[in-house]
Amino acid sequence: MYLTDKFYMTHAIKLAKLGIFTTTPNPNVGCIIVNNKKIVGKGYHFKKGEPHAEINALKMAGKYAKGSTVYVTLEPCNYFNLTPSCCQALIEAGVYRVVVATNDPNPKVNGKGLKLLIKSGIKITNNILSSETKKINYGFFKRMNTGYPWIQLKLASSLDGKIGLVNGLSKWISSQDSRKDVQILRAKSSAILSTSKTILNDNSILLVKWDELNKNIKKIYPKKFLRQPIRIILDRFNKIKSTNQIILSPGKIFLVKLKHTSEQWPSYVKEVIIPEMDGYFNLKYLFKFLGKKGINNLLIEAGSTLSGSLITYKLIDELILYLSPKLLGNIALNLCNIKKFTKISEVPKFSFKNIKKIGLDLRLILKLIK
To answer: What is the pLDDT of residues 136-166, one digit of tens each?
Structure first.
């Protein structure tokens, strides 16, 4: 039974991954319905407000849902919100058994959905490929459990750990292939955060360039469904003006400031006031605010000062580093500015999660050890 359950749950997880570009703030969920050893229904959650994976799979299964086994990557919801209760739909369809990868960490659901199904006489099997399911929902699980989003810091550097020449030029350290890979990171993210200094220096608009996504992604993510992440700009000294390119590029923007300004912004720009701490923004307060706004995955693209602070105070979960086979010299700009350490035991430590060659570069994904 376990091997069979694992086989079908693997397919359900593959379905869940089809929603990684669109489901935020909801989790990625896949569902497969099996009757008489045949798959009779498939479904995945596409985006907030649309049917959940179970509903799509039940619709496909039709009458064959009765007496079936349902494989779903996350505990079915037990309450009506923007969509009907999935538990109620499974009960009404007369399914025999539900196999779940993991409980839903949402306190509204956690365990309650399974209890309702059991009460209705449906057999339950839980914790099948649980860790694999959580991997595609890091942000959702962290936000539900802690209130904070999953935070990734993206940097590109030379072999000698520099992010730009002494005169500030940094285009382009990384290869074109790496820059295209960043577009995938952006597309998966709920929001992208940067500083006014970085944005103005790079003339960046922080938008996903759909045309630079690879062919395989475009097949599952047509341009008409392109979802731009919320753009978050740290603007402590009010450098961003309504005439800047990033403001003229429509899409939701949180302009983070210490106090409101008299600047007239487009309707999609919202000033967010964050308290000060140690001469800078209180970043923990900001990240908690973003969690309350439903942001699961936060991608940070910034310079050495902010990067150094985030690493020093252990505010990130992952560092994504594109390492270019170039040497910029010892007076070039450092990867990150962190305080001076006198003991090796005190320095920030990382573990390697993934190393991959991207074009001419290496992409290192490292987990910050906290």
So the answer is: 999 999 999 999 999 999 998 888 888 766 6
Report the Cα 269 to chain-centroid distance in Å: 22
Q: Which two tokens stand for residue 238?
A: 């009010």
Q: How far is the C-alpha of 45 from the C-alpha of 52, rounded, in Å?
A: 5
Instruction: Report the predicted TM-score, pTM, of the whole model to 2 decimal places.
Output: 0.91
- What residues are labeled active site? 54
CA-to-CA separations, 333 to 110, 174, 330, 336, in angstroms, rounded: 47, 15, 8, 8
* DSSP letters spanning 31-82: EEEEETTEEEEEEE--STTSPPHHHHHHHHHGGGGTT-EEEESSPPP-S-SS
Q: Following DSSP, what letter does each residue of 244-308 receive, concatenated?
A: SHHHHS-S-EEEEESS-------TTEEEEE--EETTEE-HHHHHHHHHHTT--EEEEE--HHHHH
- Asked if 83 and 49 count as a contact pair (C-beta separation under 8 A), the reply is yes
For residues 169 and 157, give the distance between their C-alpha atoms in angstroms, rounded to a whole number: 12
As given in the structure block, the two tokens for residue 13 are 């997880």
